Amino acid sequence: MDKMIREKEYLEQPGGHTISQLCSQWETSIRYKVKPTTYAVYITVIEKHILPCLGGWQAEKLNNWALEQYLQEKQKEELSWSTLRLIVFLLKRILHMGEEKGIGTAEKLCFYIPKYKKTYMRTLGQENSEKLLHYLNGSGESFELGLMICICTGIRVGELCGLQWKDVNWLRGTIQINRTVSRIRNLDTEGIAEATLSKTIIYIGTPKTGTSVREIPLPDFLILKMQRYKKNDACYILTGTSKCMEPRGVQRKFKNLLRKCGIPDINIHSLRHSFASRWIENGFDSKALSEILGHSSVKVTMDIYVHSDLEQKKSYMNRMV
Question: What is the rounded average pLDDT for all residues in the chain?
Answer without folding.
Answer: 86
